[in-house]
């Protein structure tokens, strides 16, 4: 499968180039960066710390998408909605790892999915998607006397909060409880907040250093607490998941898929 990496000079972009080069069944067909980026013209392999791959980074996605079969996209919301239109025009697979997407952005992805096979997840790792399954089960088994609180920590450069993973885990907890997350989500607490409302799902965000991604979901009940956690140690887990998603989606029909589909969970 011929794959393009967009945002090639990003933390995830460089990881994705390595994952494509190392995986069986795919080759790097292109690498895209923003116009004006210092990476334009460089070899994608060299950029990712590998021997040269003979693929120069360019800022023109159109001809690159036209010659490819899939795109791996861990960039930013405005870029991702633009790439979704182009991927739909080219009828190629679009793997979306970008987080911080608004409802409006998600509607644009849903529209593009009429023509493209899109796999989107706030976290492409096997571990987090397994944890989400556990959270759904625990939330379904416990009543509202167990308060659900989600804590995440990421590196100091992360720009969106709560993280895509925290929201994915919150969705899983809400699903288990049979409620809608927007109805019970509490993402900020400051000052005189009053007592906790029964049934709320709380989010707390920590930022600092080089943390790849830590998440925990706590169920705090009368006299006992259950905590389910995941600690990402290496961004390679997300990149390998993205390549797996692209290969999985290649023979599928257009539509919007998630990592639970890819992993068969
Ligand atoms: N779902 C998952 O499993 C994971 C998701 N993520 C998400 O992936 C996204 C990227 O994370 P990360 O790699 O750390 O961030 P970075 O900022 O390091 O990388 C993003 C890259 O995309 C580039 N970019 C932005 N806009 C465009 C554009 N229009 N055309 C081409 N390139 C563009 C940026 O360029 P510039 O710097 O010039 O803006 C940058 O090089 C985030 O939303 C993050 O939350 C991260 C890890 C795992
Ligand atoms: O920005 C990151 O770094 C990460 N983003 C994703 C998220 O928002 O959950 C996934 C991972 O935790 C790393």
UniProtKB/TrEMBL annotation:
Its EC number is 1.17.1.8. Keywords: Amino-acid biosynthesis, Cytoplasm, Diaminopimelate biosynthesis, Lysine biosynthesis, NAD, NADP, Oxidoreductase. The lineage of its organism: Bacteria, Pseudomonadati, Pseudomonadota, Alphaproteobacteria, Hyphomicrobiales. One of its GO terms (biological process) is diaminopimelate biosynthetic process. Pathway: Amino-acid biosynthesis; L-lysine biosynthesis via DAP pathway; (S)-tetrahydrodipicolinate from L-aspartate: step 4/4. This is 4-hydroxy-tetrahydrodipicolinate reductase. NAD(+) binds at residues 7-12, 33, 97-99, 121-124. PANTHER family: 4-HYDROXY-TETRAHYDRODIPICOLINATE REDUCTASE 1, CHLOROPLASTIC-RELATED, DIHYDRODIPICOLINATE REDUCTASE. (S)-2,3,4,5-tetrahydrodipicolinate binds at residues 155, 164-165. The active site is at 154 (proton donor/acceptor), 158 (proton donor).
């Amino acid at each position: 499968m011929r794959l393009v990496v967009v945002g090639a000079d990003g933390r995830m972009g460089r990881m994705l180039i390595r994952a494509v080069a190392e995986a069986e069944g795919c080759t790097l067909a292109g690498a895209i960066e923003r116009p004006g980026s210092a990476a334009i013209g460089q070899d994608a392999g060299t950029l990712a710390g590998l021997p040269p791959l003979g693929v120069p980074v360019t800022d023109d996605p159109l001809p690159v998408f036209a010659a490819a079969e899939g795109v791996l996209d861990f960039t930013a919301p405005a870029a991702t909605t633009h790439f979704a239109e182009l991927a739909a025009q080219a009828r190629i697979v679009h793997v979306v790892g970008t987080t911080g997407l608004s409802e409006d952005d998600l509607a644009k992805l849903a529209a593009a999915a009429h023509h493209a096979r899109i796999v989107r997840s706030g976290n492409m790792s096997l571990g987090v998607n397994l944890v989400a399954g556990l959270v759904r089960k625990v939330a379904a088994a416990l009543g509202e006397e167990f308060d659900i609180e989600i804590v995440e920590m990421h590196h100091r450069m992360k720009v969106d909060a709560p993280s895509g993973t925290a929201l994915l885990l919150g969705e899983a907890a809400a699903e288990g409880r049979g409620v809608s997350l927007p109805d019970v989500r509490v993402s900020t607490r400051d000052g005189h907040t009053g007592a906790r409302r029964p049934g709320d799902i709380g989010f707390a965000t920590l930022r600092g250093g080089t943390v790849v991604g830590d998440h925990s979901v706590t169920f705090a009940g009368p006299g006992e607490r259950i905590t389910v956690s995941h600690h990402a140690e290496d961004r390679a887990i997300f990149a390998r998941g993205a390549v797996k998603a692209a290969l999985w989606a290649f023979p599928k029909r257009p539509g919007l898929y998630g990592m639970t589909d890819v992993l068969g969970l």
